Amino acid sequence: MTLLEPVRPTIRCIKEDLGLRKLPPASEPLARLDHPVLKKAHEVCRDDPPTSERIASIDDEVLWKVKIGRWRGAAWCPTPHRWLIAAGTREAGSPDDFYADLVERGRRWRTDHNRSTIPSVQTDTLVAPLLPTDTDRQRLELERQTRVVDALFDVVPELVTDAARSGTEQIDEAGGCRIGVLVRRTELDEVYVAVRIVGPVQESVTAVILSTVPAVADPNGWFLDSMPERMSDPAELVWSNLLDSDLLDAIIGA
């Protein structure tokens, strides 16, 4: 069974149709915007196909009607993706003016396209100007990367403090990989930290993981190593550094 994605409004729809000139930070996914037409889109698009009426006069793409109060919307749902690509309000006493206007816009775009482009579009409408663009896909990737970074900032410091208190390796998963942390005091009373990263990860993710380790004595002091007293796992890299013992003790409450 294909897992359907939540409905996302396009950036054009947000700014031009919903009137929100400023996008929220990447830590707040656009799919979670608080707007009645988007909430209704989530409701009708949670199934495949959506539980609403198709906009029949649009024939180059399959678009679905989203209606709540005076708000009207058009959803584009190529599985597993779900997009709110247009929205607006109906005039009092005219329930279908939004969709009639949308169809006319599609016909104008088709006419303009066929004047200058070969081969011509054979459908009655062309709604490509409303579909997600590279900007939408870049925003989606930025949100994904932000979730990864936020998860690492939560997980890695906790692993370090738990490892320092227990003297044993602490393991969790975040950022698409398994992370193990071991903290030990050396005979010279230095505090050694080893961070084990298992799984194929980008260098940028590794850099974030190492940057989230608290109480590091020298951020540039990381070097490749191995976990003591055991063999390495496949697809594993171990990075080591020294921690500032006073800062670490302050963090763990020693």
Key features of this structure:
2 domains; 4-stranded mixed beta sheet; 6 helices; alpha+beta; 5-stranded antiparallel beta sheet; 254 residues; 9 strands; elongated
Topology:
Elements: E1 8-9, H1 11-17, H2 36-44, E2 63-68, E3 71-76, E4 83-89, H3 97-116, H4 134-166, E5 170-174, E6 177-185, E7 191-198, H5 203-211, E8 223-225, E9 236-243, H6 245-252
Parallel strand pairs: 1-4
Antiparallel strand pairs: 2-3, 3-4, 5-6, 6-7, 7-9, 8-9
How would you classify the quaternary structure? Answer: single chain
The major pleated sheet works out as:
5 strands, antiparallel
- What's the N-to-C terminus distance? 50 Å
Query: How many H/I helical runs?
Result: 6
Please give the domain count. Answer: 2
> Regions with pLDDT < 50 over 5+ consecutive residues?
none
Order of strands across the biggest sheet? 5-6-7-9-8
Q: What is the global morphology? A: elongated
- Number of extended strands: 9
Class computed from helices, strands and strand pairing? alpha+beta
What is the element string, with H for helices and E for strands? EHHEEEHHEEEHEEH
Can you give the helix content as a percent range? Answer: 25-40%
Would you tell me the overall average pLDDT? 93
Strand content: 15-25%
Q: Radius of gyration over alpha carbons? A: 26 Å
